[in-house]
Amino acid sequence: MELDNLIQQFQQKDKAAFATLYDMYAKNICGVINVILNDPERAQELCHDVFIKIWEKSDQYDASKGRFFTWILNIARNTAIDELRSKTHKNQKKNLPVDSLVGIYENSEDLNDKIDTIGLQSLLKGLKDKCILLIDMLYFKGYTQKEAAKELKTPIGTIKTRIRSCISEIRKNMA
Amino acid sequence: MSMEVEKYIASGILELYVAGALTPEQNLEVQHYALQYPEIQKEIEGIEASILKLTESTSPKMQGNGFRKISAELDDIIPFTPLESRRKTSWGNYVGWAASILLAVGLFWLYSENRNLQSEVEISNQEKLDLEETLSTTKDAIARKDFILEQLRNQNVSVIALGGQAVSPTSYAKVYWNKEQNSVIIDAQGLPEPPSGYTYQVWSLTLDPLTPTSIGLLDNLSDEGDKLFALENSNASEAFGITLEPEGGSESPTLEQLYALGTVGR
Question: Domain RNA polymerase sigma-70 region spans what residues (chain A) (predicted)?
């Protein structure tokens, strides 16, 4: 309920409310962008741009369409993917590297000074590669259920049950 | 927790909901259930918490002044709108009110137009129904007449003329009897209208000994425009008689009320 009030105030262009939301979600938004771009410096710049966009679009958020976090996650993903496309001149989502989370996870030793790799490693501990790949597609790349099923040549129902068990493992690792 | 709620949670749809990977319809569905079942709402928050943890762990090390920079930029975006518009407020107010009133009048007009159209549509629909009913009644009547005409023209049909009897000498009737099909058509044109509470009953008679068998009533004689009645008759009739009987008919004919009688020609 508290979050609802905060969001309401933010939608009425209350800057203090927006500051609180920034504190709550900045790391997450920057993290998502970082996974997509695999470039911590550029990710920070884009992260800034994304929050400006969130402020400008505040009246477009509609709670009936989903969680507030899901809404800003979507803005972040789209912004980062646009950036990647403009760089690589590729227009298909499928042309994006879909294994970037896997890559960050595997190379996390080298990235230790740039990101919180201990946290990432403990969260993804024991997860199979296909789990990490699916998490990457659905949460970091913004694939829809249908698109993920098509990309992985998997029935749409399997995507659902698989993501359920993958996220359950992360939640176990959190406990 | 109910089985359905448990099953819904276990399906994985909530994970996809948090990811934003569902269709708008599915989003609405999840929202609906989340409002109804606190367990579902709690599960959504749990899933979101794990994704927050995960995305946080992939974040680059943040500079401390992130929001200050954003805030400074927001200040650049916002200010000039309020100053300009404040001066024009009162004028703007009048225009606003006028527009609202116009809109309200317009809406009311549209509303009443709509009401009128609706009632016109209703009347038209009723007229259509009436016409359909008339058409269907007419079709039935034509089919009936076709049937009767076919019966009359059938070569197997014998025509028996029934003459008026003591109680009503001017009465008459005709029986068209199709022995093949065991059917008779009674033409009751020549019978007077029965008093209320009474009806004509048609009898098949064998003469030696005299044995009457009822073959039907001529109910609602006054309503039947053509006064033609189709009845069944599988008897080896030698004569037909029509008596006036109390409504619903009688077991045996009331001979004092015999209106018409005629024998089958050999």
Answer: 21-88, 124-172
